[in-house]
């Protein structure tokens, strides 16, 4: 157990931050999954800007790595372009 008041506070802050990050990371994963499950090109094209914006925001706040965001955006764009 922590011995200092500041370390107890740090533990509380880290837990709060962890839950916040988990929520947004999970939301992002669900959005990506939903886009990948879409077979209609028009629907996928409409969804893509929202997912792209979400990925950029999460990368900017270091919830996900910037390269991961770039890779996901690239893969999703390729997927959309292949849809009939």
Keywords, please?
mainly alpha; elongated; single chain; 84 residues
Molecular structure report:
This protein has 84 residues and is an all-alpha fold. The chain is 83% helix and 0% strand. It contains three helices and no strands. The chain has helices at residues 5-37, 41-60, 66-82. Helix 1 runs antiparallel to helix 2. The longest helix has 33 residues, at 5-37. The mean pLDDT is 95.
User: Which descriptor suits the 3D outline?
Assistant: elongated
Q: State the end-to-end distance.
A: 58 Å
What are the segments in which pLDDT stays under 50 over at least 5 consecutive residues? none
Order of helices and strands: HHH
Q: Largest sheet at a glance?
A: none
Number of helices: 3
- Overall SS class: mainly alpha
Break the fold down into its secondary structure elements and pairings.
Layout: H1 5-37, H2 41-60, H3 66-82
Helix pairs in contact: 1-2, 2-3
Question: What's a concise summary of this model?
Answer:
The protein is mostly helical and 84 residues long.
